[in-house]
Write a structure and sequence with these properties.
single chain, about 450 residues, about 65% helix, elongated, alpha+beta, four-stranded antiparallel beta sheet, Outer membrane efflux proteins (OEP), 6 strands
């Protein structure tokens, strides 16, 4: 199944694809064996952001490696649930001595079985610690997935921008070719000096170089994006995305409210549960365990047999696990302080990115809607005046270059806006675009 995103929602729907891709990735993981990696998904045809996200989350090499951490955590949970093993003891006494204990005449052989009885529900608490640790790893894996999602979005944006730059460079080359042809005709008609044809030839050569450079950057952008799902041979075609399609965004206050739902902050809650479980286990380990034993003793003298039994427990005179308890308490308090510090940093980051997003969007829209329109009008007037001999070729070339520079600046500004948008969505963990009103 393929998802084709409409142009106005191509960034917002990327995060929606995250949910679908995560479920798909889970299916791939279930099919893995401990010694094989899932096959690489290599999208073909028109590439959408949803296609790129789904492929990356399913077969990204780093994510594939991180999934084994969850499997290792499952193994630790299994180990924590096990009871302590009983202990079999064989002892020999009263032999190789002197007098009546010489040789083996007075030998006593004892076979006993002992079992440690854990008090304070230590096994249950160990299991709770292992489960909390697994939950923490799962949240960290989700945060890692968001990192991959953000990187896919950034590289997809760069791919779209690279396509637009190729189109712009190609149009520059076409304009330079038409200008060079027109000036050649004017020179042959003795209406322009030979120097203008030389300048036009130089401009055409430079435009050709720019096309090759833009095409090279496009190939690099394609490979950089494909590498996120483990491919070294991109098979997808061109993207069909309007880089200047931008939706309204949520207010800053709404974005801050979403920070708590980001896996980066859910992680603090999971880590808090882990620290609480560790504290409970440390307190339980302060209670001594009991060891019960029972066995059979064989005496050579008289060939008698007797039962033996006993129990033991450590005396908590010096080590009452007080150091471990104190450390667990400190770690629990530290987690609360770390979460507060991280939240303040994230809030400041979102504010800075939000202001940068507003500025980039405004710059892109102003360049494209206002500045570019004025520059194109000036170019048209300059070209008309050049044909009537009122302007020089240098003035015409300057007007053309202004239009091209504004187009390039608008592409860069739009790409910057989408990149910043992706950064905000990574920090908040949710789409930033405002929901359309009825």
């Amino acid at each position: 199944m393929r998802f084709y995103l409409s142009r106005p929602t191509w960034v917002r729907d990327g995060l929606c694809a995250f949910v679908l891709a995560t479920g798909f990735a889970a299916t791939v993981v279930a099919a893995e064996t401990p010694f094989t990696s899932p096959p690489t998904i290599n999208p073909v045809g028109t590439l959408t952001l949803a296609d790129a996200i789904r492929a990356a989350l399913a077969t990204n090499p780093d994510l594939v490696a991180s999934r084994y951490e969850i499997k290792a955590a499952d193994a630790r949970v299994e180990q924590a649930r096990l009871r302590l093993n009983p202990e079999l003891t064989v002892s020999l006494e009263n032999f190789a001595g002197t007098g009546e204990t010489r040789g083996t005449k007075a030998l006593e052989r004892t076979l006993s079985l002992s079992q440690v009885i854990e008090l304070g529900d230590k096994r249950g608490l160990r299991t709770s610690v292992a489960l909390s640790d697994r939950d923490l790893l799962e949240v960290e894996r989700q945060a890692h997935q968001l990192d991959v999602l953000a990187e896919v979005t950034r590289r997809f944006i760069e791919l779209v921008a690279a396509q637009d730059r190729v189109a712009l460079a190609t149009s520059i080359q076409e304009i330079a070719q038409r200008t060079a042809d027109a000036i050649t005709a004017r020179v042959q008609a003795a209406r322009s000096p030979e120097a203008e044809r030389s300048r036009a030839g130089i401009a055409l050569s430079r435009a050709t170089i720019e096309v090759r450079q833009a095409q090279s950057e496009l190939r690099s952008a394609r490979l950089a994006l494909a590498s996120l799902w483990g491919s070294t041979d991109p098979a997808f075609g061109a993207t069909q995305v309007d880089l200047f399609a931008m939706e309204a965004i949520e207010p800053f206050e709404t974005l801050v409210e979403r920070l708590d739902r980001n896996p980066d902050f859910v992680r603090f809650a999971s880590e808090g549960r882990l620290r609480e479980a560790e504290l409970k286990l440390a307190r339980a380990q302060a209670r001594p365990n009991l060891t019960f034993s029972a066995g059979l003793r064989r005496l050579n003298i008289g060939n008698d047999t007797a039962l033996v039994a006993g129990f033991s427990m450590p005396l908590q005179l010096f080590d009452r696990n007080q150091g471990a308890i104190r450390e667990a308490e400190v770690r629990l308090t530290q987690n609360t302080a770390a979460r507060r510090a991280a939240f303040l940093r994230a809030q400041a980051t979102v504010y800075g990115l939000y202001q940068e997003l507003l500025a980039s969007r405004d710059r892109a829209q102003t360049l494209r809607a206002e500045v570019l329109t004025q520059a194109e009008q000036a170019l048209q007037q300059t070209r008309s005046g050049y044909e009537r001999g009122r302007f020089s070729y240098l003035e015409l070339a300057t007007a053309q270059q202004e239009v091209l520079d504004i187009r390039a600046a608008a592409i860069d500004a739009a790409a910057d806006a989408h990149r910043v948008l992706a950064e905000i969505e990574r920090v908040t963990g949710e789409p930033v675009a405002a929901a359309p009103s009825n």
